[in-house]
Write a structure and sequence with these properties.
The chain has 467 residues and is α+β, with helices and mostly antiparallel strands. It folds into 3 domains: 6-281, no CATH class; 288-399, no CATH class; 408-465, Orthogonal Bundle (Arc Repressor Mutant, subunit A). It has helices at 67-79, 163-180, 211-230, 276-285, 290-301, 305-311, 315-324, 330-347, 359-370, 376-386, 393-399, 408-421, 423-430, 435-447, 454-465, and strands spanning 2-3, 6-7, 17-26, 83-84, 91-95, 105-109, 113-118, 121-130, 134-136, 141-143, 150-156, 190-197, 203-208, 238-243, 248-254, 264-265. The strands form 4 sheets. The protein has a 9-stranded mixed sheet. The protein has a 3-stranded antiparallel sheet with strand order 6-5-16, with no helix packed on it. It binds zinc ion and manganese (II) ion (MN).
Length: 467
């Protein structure tokens, strides 16, 4: 592991790696950047959200830049602690030839924000640009529904020192973008990665479409470059493409044919100028960034950082936690929401927002526990049902007959019964078979309808079996 540039210890990384990222994510706007076409390209048949402007037909001129997109990009820049450039920001034409780009150039702005920071990684700059269409070589078609959708591009300094750190950084970045309510998720992410080993030549990897892809591409590239160094072969400066299906990178072009984008200011688009009142407005409307929320949760509610991170993993979950701790002890609520709630959500592959659970139901469940109307075990079972049921925790508890905490005597009697009924398991136990204990605990649970405390049950069974 490498931390903050200081090498600690890892067999994987006995070379020093430096990596910078360029991340594109779609801005969440209703219409495209320079025309009125809709942006829901995934929900409609190919080539239906199109017009002369986003097809760049002769004579078609762009509309004024979509202000919703600019506002959202500004909020993202501020949440990533960037300084805002308030001079005139021009759109440039970046020329290249590819079937997804009918105009032959992509409109890309000069930086809006610069010198930001996230998780110890410096953000060099943030700008906006338009998405190209989608060329599908296997089908021989181009779908222009996507062309002209606003993108934000975030460029970091080479402050990332391992594939693991790149993964953590990207996860946190996607979380900030989701929080900002300005960008679409990881599904629209496209990243380019720069990597160099031990101060060697810089290799750029393009075509990375997911966090996992970035991690795999960096891992692959480290091994590839290390092997070349071992064999005494010098690393060439080049651009490589990541092939997601095989998790490898392949050479695209060497430095002899460097990109020549022939940047010129777009004469069809007036430059943007971000005013003071727009910055004030954005600051007033922007949510607290997740990393700041973690710090505040630790200080304000006295919970540990790990719990705070889990609770802030989703804005809705964080908001509901703050609602819940108005009436429930914060550490107790954090424990249940971090361990049990997240466990159940994870198991069901749900995020909190799309589950049936809300703050009211969590409060009711925690109250049942606090008032000792149900056992811990019963609480764990109820929360499993809460995900899929519209019923309240109390209704679920009643339905499953889980109301009531059982007395120690009843558990002892159930344990005696379990031992009596299962001589084979008892034999196994005495021969040191550990699984037989689990079986006996299960039998006690059955006799007590799940109301016995599992740890207590193990203790009671051990006592009975050894006396
Ligand atoms: Zn259009
Ligand atoms: Mn770009």
């Amino acid at each position: 592991m490498i931390n903050g540039g200081v090498k600690i210890n890892s067999s994987e990384t006995d070379v020093n790696m430096m990596c910078g990222l360029e991340i594109h994510v779609q801005l969440d706007t209703n219409s495209k950047f320079f025309c009125d076409c809709k942006t829901n390209y995934q929900e409609v048949p190919p080539n239906t959200n199109i017009c002369p402007v986003c097809l760049n037909q002769p004579g078609a001129k762009p509309y004024p830049t979509n202000s919703q997109g600019l506002k959202k990009a500004l909020i993202i820049a501020l949440m990533l602690n960037c300084k805002i450039d308030q001079s005139l920001i021009y759109f440039l034409r970046k020329h290249y030839n590819y079937p997804d780009l009918p105009s032959g150039y992509q409109r890309t702005s000069l930086p809006i924000g610069f010198e930001g920071e996230l998780n110890g990684v410096r953000i060099r700059e943030i700008h906006v640009e338009e998405d190209p269409g989608q060329f599908k070589p296997d089908k021989g078609i181009v779908d222009f529904n996507r062309s002209g959708i606003p993108l934000v591009e975030i460029v970091t300094e080479p402050d990332i020192f391992s594939p693991e750190q790149a993964r953590t950084f990207l996860k946190e970045l996607i979380r900030v973008l989701k929080y900002s309510d300005g960008a679409r998720g990881e599904g629209t992410m496209r990243a380019d990665v720069n990597i160099s080993l031990d101060g060697g030549k810089r290799v750029e990897i393009k075509n990375i479409n997911s966090i996992k892809g970035a991690f795999k591409a960096l891992k692959f590239e480290m091994v590839r470059q290390k092997n070349l160094i071992k064999r005494g072969i010098e690393i060439q400066q080049e651009t490589r493409a990541f092939v997601e299906s095989q998790m490898i990178t392949v050479s695209m072009r060497s430095k002899e044919d460097v990109d020549d984008y022939r940047f010129i200011p777009d004469p069809d688009l007036p430059p943007i100028a971000i005013r003071d009142d727009e910055i004030v407005d954005a600051k007033n409307n922007m949510p607290e960034a997740p990393h700041n929320k973690v710090k505040r949760f630790v200080e304000q509610y006295g919970i540990d950082e790990e719990s705070a991170k889990v609770l802030t993993s989703e804005l809705e979950l964080a908001d509901d936690y703050e609602e819940i701790v108005k009436s429930i002890e914060p550490k107790f609520a954090a424990l249940w929401m971090r361990d049990e709630l997240k466990r159940v959500l994870y198991y069901n592959k749900l995020d909190y927002r799309s589950s049936n659970i809300g703050s009211d139901k969590i409060i009711q469940l925690l109250d049942l526990l606090i008032n000792k109307e149900i056992t811990t075990k019963a609480g764990q079972r109820i929360i499993e049902y809460m995900v899929e049921s519209s019923k309240t925790p109390r209704e679920i508890a009643e339905e499953l007959n889980l109301i009531g905490i059982i007395s120690d005597d009843e558990v002892v009697n159930a344990a005696k019964l379990a031992i009596e009924e299962n001589p084979e398991a008892v034999d196994d136990y005495h021969q040191g078979k550990k699984t037989s204990m689990n079986f006996l605990v299960g039998q006690v649970m059955r006799h007590t309808r799940g109301k016995a405390d599992p740890k207590e049950t193990v203790k009671i069974l051990n006592d009975l079996l050894n006396n």
